[in-house]
Amino acid sequence: MAPDWVESSGWPAPGALDRDSVEARLDRLVRTNRFTIAVVFPVTGAVLLLASALGWFAPAVEALPPALADPLAWVPDALAFNPWLVLVGVAVMRLPLVAGVAPLVDRKATAALLALAAYAYGIEFVGVTTGWPYGAFEYGVALGPMAGGVPLALPVFFFPLVLNSYLLCLLLLGDLARSPWVRLPVVVATVVGIDLVLDPGAVALGFWAYDGGGAFYGVPWSNYAGWVLSATLAVGAFDWGLDRAALLARLDDCPFMLDDMVSFVILWGGVNAAFGNWAPVALASVFAAGLVVTDRFDVPTRPRWVT
């Protein structure tokens, strides 16, 4: 018999966990905390990233009375670009997409994800060591644990950029999405557009830097040529591995499925605005408009905490 606290919390009793119950719990968690996940986390993340990049932590601590400043002297080193805070924050913002797609992941989808993960690690390692295909660059901030100069959590950063683009395009294209000759190029272009927002903000923060800089806010055009390649392969993998009809049905039933893209617009639109990167801000606004048109920018305006 399960302890009283287990029954009162609504969590499955030990030994009663299965895929359906875990997915149901995750679904409920996201639905109940949409504002916190999709709005509070990206706003907080943007502030912490800007504070890290612009060196706000140390002056803020030094401005305190000595009785408080001395015990808090550890704060700048602990919070400035803390890799675990970055990773946890990103993982939390990914929860809506994970909860939305999880019921659709079968053996075929798992094979596509594993193949795509292998490609992502491989191409990133090649990119870091040779400069191909994105252009010579190096990481300036550890995005969680690193191995061989590559973030171990790379799929957490890469997959959602592609899948969010895929889902948004399915909604925007409507019946036109039935044709692969329309669907695939439009999604690939959208993924590249996402990176036109992401990369300038990341470079401004110091996440990574390209040797010799680049014409587009410090990013070379070769980076986007590389993203055409990677986006084409990734979009093809998702298109093959996921049932499109099931995705559309899940989108109809799951209002939070694109909340991760809402977070993306808030976080990277805000970061780019802070650095005066107005072209990426304008593009982020285009993605925001797409979310509004598809009725996906509908995160509750007030937080609803779990009771």
Automatic annotation (TrEMBL):
<keyword id="KW-0472">Membrane</keyword>
<feature type="transmembrane region" description="Helical">
    <location>
        <begin position="186"/>
        <end position="209"/>
    </location>
</feature>
<feature type="transmembrane region" description="Helical">
    <location>
        <begin position="111"/>
        <end position="132"/>
    </location>
</feature>
<dbReference type="Pfam" id="PF04240">
    <property type="entry name" value="Caroten_synth"/>
</dbReference>
<feature type="transmembrane region" description="Helical">
    <location>
        <begin position="152"/>
        <end position="174"/>
    </location>
</feature>
<feature type="transmembrane region" description="Helical">
    <location>
        <begin position="221"/>
        <end position="242"/>
    </location>
</feature>
<dbReference type="InterPro" id="IPR017823">
    <property type="entry name" value="CruF"/>
</dbReference>
<feature type="transmembrane region" description="Helical">
    <location>
        <begin position="35"/>
        <end position="58"/>
    </location>
</feature>
<dbReference type="InterPro" id="IPR053540">
    <property type="entry name" value="BABR_hydratase"/>
</dbReference>
<dbReference type="InterPro" id="IPR007354">
    <property type="entry name" value="CruF-like"/>
</dbReference>
<feature type="transmembrane region" description="Helical">
    <location>
        <begin position="78"/>
        <end position="99"/>
    </location>
</feature>
<protein>
    <submittedName>
        <fullName>Carotene biosynthesis associated membrane protein</fullName>
    </submittedName>
</protein>
<keyword id="KW-1133">Transmembrane helix</keyword>
<keyword id="KW-0812">Transmembrane</keyword>
